[in-house]
Amino acid sequence: MVIISQIIASVLVNMLSYESLLKLYHVLKPFSWEKNGRVYEKLFHIKAWKDYVPSVGAFDKKNLSMNPDKEYLSRFILESVRAELCHEGAIIFGLLISALTPDATRRRILLWTALVNIPCMMIQRYNRPRLERILFRPHREGTSGIVRFWEEKKEIRNQGRM
Questions:
Q1: In Å, what is the CA distance from 118 to each residue of 55, 154, 155?
Q2: Position 103 confidence tier, pLDDT thresholds 50, 70, 90
Q3: Residue 145 falls in which region: left (phi positive, over 0), alpha (psi -120 to 50) or beta
Q4: How sure is the predictor about 43, in pLDDT bands with cuts at 50, 70 and 90?
Q5: What distance in Å separates the CA atoms of residue 13 and residue 97, rounded to the nearest whole number?
Q6: What is the mean pLDDT of residues 37-51?
Q7: C-alpha angle with apex 53: 49 to 58, nearest 5 degrees?
Q8: What is the distance between the alpha carbons of residues 39 and 6, in angstroms, rounded to a whole number?
Q9: How far is residue 33's CA from residue 15's CA, in Å, rounded to a whole number?
Q10: Alpha helix locations (H) across the chain?
Q11: Which residues of 118-147 are buried (b: 16+ CB within 10 A; e: fewer)?
Q12: Terminal-residue alpha carbon distance, the chain
């Protein structure tokens, strides 16, 4: 049942448009205590293990190392929002399922849910500020960024409606 809830969380989050993800992007900004992801390096040595965690998303991150453009980075950042929301949803479903189960099973569900989802959320929260620093580098053309990029796309769509 817990695995099915993980799949349901994934399906629901994958139905969100980039416009919806952009709205949620602001909610998932780094907390000050995260120090733009550095806390994950210091406390959890995330660099040593993050690449071993399997990625099941549809977004191709192979191009990240090949001097990505602003559109690619913007999409990558929004896909990290999608991934984090998916894991948050899976945790919520896990908590709901555990509330309806006996104590011994409840502990196993909570442990499994935490072990599967929290490291993945940490990876997203570690990577996103790093990607944003690349996207907002001063030497890049103009003052582009994720919000401006998607606002420009929205303006183009709205011009077609007039």
A1: 14, 33, 37
A2: confident
A3: beta
A4: very high
A5: 19
A6: 94
A7: 140
A8: 27
A9: 31
A10: 2-14, 18-25, 38-44, 46-49, 70-99, 103-135, 146-159
A11: ebbbbbbbbbbbebbeebeeeeeeeebbbe
A12: 48
Is the whole-model pTM more than 0.85? no
* Residue scoring higher pLDDT (65 or 8): 8
Closest Cα to residue 113, out of 96, 100, 130?
96
Whole-angstrom CA distances from 100 to 3, 105, 128 are 16, 10, 35
Q: CB under 8 Å to 68, separation ≥6 — which residues?
A: 76, 134
Residue 37 burial (CB count, 10 A):
21
Q: How far apart are CA 128 and CA 38, in angstroms?
A: 12
